[in-house]
Structures are given as C-alpha cells and as structure tokens.
Prior knowledge:
Elements (H helix, E strand, L loop, with lengths): L1 H31 L1 E8 L3 H6 L2 E3 L1 E2 L18 E8 L3 E3 L8 E8 L2 E3 L5 E3 L4 H10 L3 E7 L5 E8 L2 E2 H7 L1
Antiparallel strand pairs: 1-3, 1-9, 2-8, 4-5, 4-6, 6-7, 9-10, 10-11
Amino acid sequence: xxxxxxxxxxxxxxxxxxxxxxxxxxxxxxxxxxxxxxxxxxxxxxxxxxxxxxxxxxxxxxxxxxxxxxxxxxxxxxxxxxxxxxxxxxxxxxxxxxxxxxxxxxxxxxxxxxxxxxxxxxxxxxxxxxxxxxxxxxxxxxxxxxxxxxxxxxxxxxxxxxxxxxxx
Length: 168
C-alpha cells in the first residue's frame, strides 16, 4: 500500500514539474532576449470568434530570394531573417547579425513558428472593432540569440492590447 502511494505521488508530480519547466524556460527566454517590434496586417475573424487566438500576418519588410522557388518541388526551406545591422534573408546562419529570427521561406514569404497568433480572453466582438478601426498594428517579439521568437504583446495605435482588453 505504501508503494502505491509513492507511485501515485510521483505520477501526479511529474506532469506538474514538466509544466513548471516549460513555463520557466519561456520566462527565461522573455527576460534574456532582445525585443523587436514589427508591423502586422490583417487578422482572421473566424479564428477570433471560434477560439481564443488572434491570428495575423507579420510584415517583415523583405521577401525570400527567388532561388527558393522551384517548379518541381514546392517545399519550404529553412531561412534566417537578419534585422541588425541590416535587414536581409539568408538560407544559412547569419555570421555578423546581432538580431535574427529563424523561420522558413515558403512561396517567397518568410514564416516563423508561433508568432502569427496571440492568446486573448473572451472579448472577440470588441477586439474585432478595435482591430478593424486601428491605423497602426504591431507585434512585440522577444528574440533569443538562437533566433527563436516569442510574442510578448500586440500594440494597437500605440497602446498595449493588454491595457485595451482591461478597459473593455
């Protein structure tokens, strides 16, 4: 009976420790990384109404080089977009770049994992009105030294979406 209780406690604590580790890694990434603000355009109102995620397209300001396009194979290719010292896209790890994001070039468009959506609470109708009437929409990213990006905030007309949601 005592062995069963020990195994039960271990079985319950393992997923909790794993979740704490994931949260800790994301928090470390947010604190030790550089901040980058990029403009966004469009959004998916169906996703906003059906779930808790706001989906949008990030405007990087550069397009993938044409050599990625192939008539026979239409597969995406690993790419890096450099922001400092100058904005460019390469298919190899940039050497003299102090701020870059790792992603993929797919049909001449650069895409990075998990930065095209933002979690929001249940205020879809009000948020949709704000988003459609806004003139300037931006995403604030936290970028690690390895080029991984994580969304910190969405800024609508110079104000954080977190503050806007609290006022609604």
